[in-house]
Amino acid sequence: MYRFLLTRQWVILTLISLLLIPTMIRLGFWQKHRYEERSARNALVAQALNAKPVPVERVTEPGHAVTRKERYHTVTATGTFDTAHEVVVRRRTNDDDEVGYHVLTPFVLADGKVLLVNRGWISSDGPSQTAFPKVPAPPGGQVTVQGRLMPDETTAASGIKDLKGLPDRQIMLINSEEQARRLGKQVLGGYIQQTAPEPKGDTPEQISDPGKEDAPLNYAYMIQWWLFAAGVPYGWFVLVRREARAREEAAKEEPAAEAEPAAVV
Average pLDDT of 178-188? Predict the structure, then answer.
């Protein structure tokens, strides 16, 4: 009754089913790892955002690489903005996906070290893409700023190419080592996304808090792939039983057809 399983069609179908099961199981484990990574990232971000603000020099120093645990930690600093050496970061978007610039202003501390402050987003509306845009001025004199600590940007992490030959005072990536060479000063590792004080006139637009990654979605995909893996053998079994039943019924009808007398002409 089950000899049909040796036919080419059923051998191919069986092999495909046997390949699908481990593939779907592996995909389920991959989604499980993604769920765990995203959950851990969400926990780290929440912990950093809710932690008590600390002076920036307790967390970073010149040449320091900001770690995952330090990222998004709220820090404070007191000093003065150096607008003469301000630059803008090209091809950045705001919450409405409008393309513009991020404003990066050196912030000189009392000991002469420099903290890079991303003051937020401004529109790219201007006479040209090569001209330095009009940037709202930060508070003058000594001021205390607060912001989220961020690691230096790289092409590998962001996918943004560090283009050369850009117009004066325009950059693609925020990198403390590059800015230290440009400024000729000691620059603290990483930079901050300013959260306080708020700018006058709401410009530059301050960068929003990092959103939570959708970890539950990966959990749902994990369950989905494992259900698919369990459904493949069940589906194969149903198809086999249906085919066997059809062949059995066909075999029963053949003798009856042979015994039927020939019609008289």
Answer: 97
Structure tokens at 66: 């900001």
For every residue of 8-23, DSSP letters joined together read HHHHHHHHHHHHHHHH
| Backbone φ and ψ of 53, nearest 5° | -60, 140
How many other C-beta atoms are found inside a 10 Å radius of the C-beta of residue 201?
A: 7
Contact 81, 139 (CB under 8 A): yes
Q: In degrees to the nearest 10, what's the CA dihedral of 176, 177, 180, 182?
A: -100
User: Tokens 């402050």, residue?
Assistant: 117
Could you tell me if 107 and 117 are in contact, meaning their C-beta atoms sit under 8 angstroms apart?
Answer: yes
| Phi, psi dihedrals of residue 192, rounded to the nearest 5° | -120, 150
Nearest-angstrom CA–CA distance, 88 and 7: 68
70 DSSP 8-state letter: T
What percent of the chain has a predicted confidence (pLDDT) above 70?
Answer: 94
Question: What backbone torsions phi and psi does residue 210 show, to the nearest 5 degrees?
Answer: -65, 135
pLDDT of residue 264 exceeding 60, the answer is: no
C-alpha angle 18-22-27 in degrees, rounded to nearest 5: 140
Nearest to 230 by CA among 20, 2, 44: 20
**Cα 257 from chain centroid?**
68
- Which residues, at least 6 apart from 66, have a Cβ–Cβ distance to it below 8 Å? 59, 60, 149, 150, 151, 152, 189, 190
- The DSSP result for 201-231, as a single string, is GG-SBPPPPPPPP-HHHHHHHHHHHHHHHHH
Express each pLDDT in 26-49 by its tens digit.
Answer: 999 999 999 998 888 888 888 888
Axis crossing angle, helix 215-259 with helix 8-50, rounded to the nearest 10: 160
